Automatic annotation (TrEMBL):
<keyword id="KW-0378">Hydrolase</keyword>
<dbReference type="Pfam" id="PF00326">
    <property type="entry name" value="Peptidase_S9"/>
</dbReference>
<dbReference type="Pfam" id="PF02897">
    <property type="entry name" value="Peptidase_S9_N"/>
</dbReference>
<dbReference type="InterPro" id="IPR023302">
    <property type="entry name" value="Pept_S9A_N"/>
</dbReference>
<feature type="region of interest" description="Disordered">
    <location>
        <begin position="1"/>
        <end position="23"/>
    </location>
</feature>
<dbReference type="InterPro" id="IPR002470">
    <property type="entry name" value="Peptidase_S9A"/>
</dbReference>
<feature type="compositionally biased region" description="Basic and acidic residues">
    <location>
        <begin position="14"/>
        <end position="23"/>
    </location>
</feature>
<keyword id="KW-0645">Protease</keyword>
<feature type="domain" description="Peptidase S9 prolyl oligopeptidase catalytic">
    <location>
        <begin position="482"/>
        <end position="696"/>
    </location>
</feature>
<dbReference type="InterPro" id="IPR029058">
    <property type="entry name" value="AB_hydrolase_fold"/>
</dbReference>
<comment type="similarity">
    <text>Belongs to the peptidase S9A family.</text>
</comment>
<dbReference type="InterPro" id="IPR001375">
    <property type="entry name" value="Peptidase_S9_cat"/>
</dbReference>
<dbReference type="InterPro" id="IPR051543">
    <property type="entry name" value="Serine_Peptidase_S9A"/>
</dbReference>
<protein>
    <submittedName>
        <fullName>S9 family peptidase</fullName>
    </submittedName>
</protein>
<keyword id="KW-0720">Serine protease</keyword>
<feature type="domain" description="Peptidase S9A N-terminal">
    <location>
        <begin position="12"/>
        <end position="421"/>
    </location>
</feature>
Length: 714
């Protein structure tokens, strides 16, 4: 492997080793760095000042170390930040969506980090600011708004915020006439609520101490939260839960699910003290979603072997499974993603042959039509409507070269009205760029889709650097959408590539099944195969590829680093889920029981233990000459806890051969999503891109001097 530019000589943090042993199914593991997990992690997520001083010292030493190693990129980071900020319309706003006498939207002010929510008269007029995110965030190192929902009578606003990064959201209620907050305040919620029909109370989900949505409650305005009525309690820690309403405000829906099973309970919105009724009992592997359709519900389900889903209907007053009737049959290879119901139409978003499609169905005669698009690869999103009795629905379109466009579409006349095209203030001409869709042969003969973006003048002779992004878990498909940040790399000669590996639903539900649990290894070998294909097609060379992924995609980065370290010039792992085995063995962690259907349960199953042990990045670190690795994390992250990358980095440094550095940057004021402001988030991206540019530079590195970093936690 061609050596990357030198980093300055500096001593990395070297945490103490305190071996901890665990034995399962006859296998014993040793973890020298388990002490980096705070014993009081539940309390620390709510109040980061409670972090153990020895752990804090180590994390701060890691930040000091990476600062030294990246010091020569400081000016580049500023330049990248300026470029990316210049592509954002600072005072941008959404196209307001009509609801009764008003139209509601959100906007940013010049220099603003947080959105503002506004409304105006339905057919135009002066804006009324309902909530100013910048004002609410003032003086707080971290602030993120949750769901913002106006009441049906348009007199109140239910909104949520998180000011720790731990995703424990506080709910507030604002009087829209006076602009003042009502005394109602509820802590430790999942980030949103749903009004009842009378708009004098709301339903919400309460998180327990382990950050699990365990209870749905109803809060009557003006009452003490201690008196909130328990509507439903989920006792199985393996299930997520949320509560929502329908656009007509007739129904309250409690959704309960893990990664392969779902269940709904229904109640009328005008009966907040009624017992919710079960729709279809949870059955392992049975998934279904409900969408209101007047006197019926549309039911999107995989029942009866419909692997790529079908659409059923059932009477709204009795939608039990025995009353389900087929409306849109299952078609293998056509994955139905979502359904939106209107008075006279039904719209579905589906994916076929790797590309999204929007299909409109006339409920009066059953006729269907497809909304067509011209580009080779693109992304679609359904925005729907606040209103049910309407002929107009909204959708968004973009591609890797085409900025996002917002359309209103008349489902009866089929007229498409362009409302807005994403503005790039610094300029963007699609003719200067090329986007392509490749198919990379995997080891077992499957073809892995690859979305590519590069400048038209980039030489395709193998000399170009490449950022190769991957995820491949939870059935999440990575869209070939427009992202202004990518052009800071592409304009510098990078090829930007997305590997649509197994574990996502990019080629249907089977693509997901073939990348989970016992088939998880396909996710990793697919990504390596994509890297090999890009080299074979002379888009790049192995030592010019910077692999990037976050969260479960960070696990992908850790796995391919172990399996094929010489296939990549560098690795960027953001909030990486790298200590898979330890986390899946700990049922007390926030997401562990709900994750067992995705990864397996190594506590109960020796086979699941064996499968996870074969790829868990932390457990498979070896004496490899790893490429330079950059790990990023957030202190209060409840999804991928900070100690996973902290431990992984320590073990990599201990066991690896070669001189390539391992860097770890941790945001001490944020969680899973990183910095909360739109511009502060760009600073993090600029840092990551400067690392990618540094390690792929052909220039001789400048001598940056020597530095010593104190041993962390020693």
């Amino acid at each position: 492997m061609t050596k990357t530019p030198a980093f300055p000589t500096a001593r990395p943090p070297s945490p103490e080793k305190h071996p901890v042993f665990d034995t399962h199914h006859g296998f014993t593991r040793t973890d020298d760095y388990a002490w980096l997990r705070a014993d009081n992690w539940q309390a620390m997520f709510r109040d980061p000042s409670l972090l153990d001083s020895r752990i804090r010292a180590h994390l701060e030493a890691e930040n000091a170390y990476q600062t030294v190693l990246m010091a020569d990129t400081a000016e580049l980071q500023k330049q990248l930040f300026g470029e990316m900020k210049g592509r954002i319309k600072e005072d941008d706003s959404t196209v307001p969506m009509k609801d009764g006498p008003y139209a509601y939207g959100s906007s940013f002010k010049l220099g603003g980090e947080q959105p503002r929510y506004f409304r105006m008269p339905r057919d135009g007029g002066d804006e009324q600011i309902l909530l100013d995110g910048d004002a609410e965030a003032e003086g707080k190192p971290y602030f993120r708004l949750g769901r913002v929902d106006h009441s049906a009578d348009h007199r109140k606003l239910l909104w949520a915020f998180d000011d720790k990064g731990s995703e424990f959201f506080t709910l507030r209620v604002r009087d829209l006439t006076s602009g003042k907050e009502l005394p109602d305040q509820i802590d430790a919620t999942s980030g949103g609520g749903t009004w009842n029909a009378a708009d004098d109370g709301f339903f919400y989900t309460r998180l327990d101490d382990n950050h699990r949505p365990s209870k749905v409650l109803f809060h009557a305005l003006g009452d003490s939260p201690q008196n909130d009525r328990l509507i439903y309690e989920e006792t199985d820690p393996g299930f997520f839960m949320d509560v929502g309403g329908t656009r007509s405000n007739k129904w309250i829906m409690i959704g309960i699910n893990d990664h392969e099973t779902s269940e709904y309970r229904l109640m009328r919105a005008d009966e907040p003290f009624a017992e919710p009724k079960l729709v279809a009992v949870r059955e392992i592997g049975l998934q279904y979603d409900l969408e209101e359709g007047g006197d019926i519900f549309f039911i999107l389900t995989n029942a009866d072997g419909a692997k790529d889903f079908k659409i059923m209907t059932a009477p709204a007053d009795d939608p039990v499974r025995a009353n389900w009737e087929e409306l849109v049959a299952h078609e293998p290879g056509r994955l139905i993603l979502s359904v939106v119901g209107f008075k006279d139409h039904m719209v579905r978003l589906e994916r076929k042959e790797g590309l999204p499609r929007i299909v409109v169905r006339d409920r009066r005669n059953g006729e269907e039509h497809l909304i067509s698009f011209d580009e080779e690869a693109f992304s679609l999103g359904l925005s729907g409507s606040y209103e049910y009795d309407t002929e107009i629905m909204r959708f968004t379109y973009s591609s890797m070269t085409t900025p996002a466009q917002v359309f209103d579409y008349n489902m009866r006349s089929r007229e498409r009205v362009l409302l807005k095209t994403q503005e790039v203030p610094s300029g963007h001409d699609p003719v200067h760029y090329v986007t392509r869709r490749l198919m990379a042969p995997a080891a077992d003969g499957e073809l892995v889709p690859v979305s590519l973006l590069h400048h038209r003048d980039t030489p395709l002779d193998g000399s170009a650097p490449c950022l190769l992004y991957g995820y491949g878990s939870y059935g999440i498909a990575i869209p070939a959408a427009f992202n202004t940040n990518w052009f800071s790399l592409v304009d510098r000669g990078f090829v930007f590539a997305i590997a649509h590996v197994r574990g996502g639903k990019d080629k249907g539900y089977g693509w997901y099944d073939d990348g989970k649990r016992s088939h998880k290894m396909n996710t990793f070998t697919d990504f390596i195969a994509v890297a090999q294909h890009l080299v074979a097609e002379r888009y790049t060379q192995h030592d010019r590829i910077v692999a990037q992924g976050g969260s479960a995609g960070g696990m992908l980065m850790g796995a391919v680093a172990n399996m094929a370290p010489h296939s990549f010039g560098a690795i960027v792992a953001e909030v990486p889920f790298v200590d898979v085995m330890t986390t899946m063995l700990d049922a007390s962690l926030p997401l562990t029981p709900p994750e067992w259907p995705e990864w397996g349960n190594p506590i109960a199953s020796a086979e699941d233990y064996r499968i996870i042990a074969a790829y868990s990045p932390y457990d498979n670190v070896a004496d490899h000459d790893y490429p330079p690795i950059l790990a990023l994390a957030g202190l209060t992250d409840p999804r991928v806890t900070y100690w996973e990358p902290a431990k992984w980095v320590a073990r990599l440094r201990e066991r690896k051969s070669g001189t390539n550095p391992v860097l770890f940057k941790i945001n001490m004021d944020s969680g899973h999503a990183g910095a909360s402001g739109r511009f502060s988030r760009l600073e993090e991206i600029a840092y990551t891109y400067s690392f990618a540019l540094k390690v792929t530079s052909k220039l001789e590195p400048e001598v940056m001097g020597k530095a010593e970093i104190a041993k962390g936690a020693s």
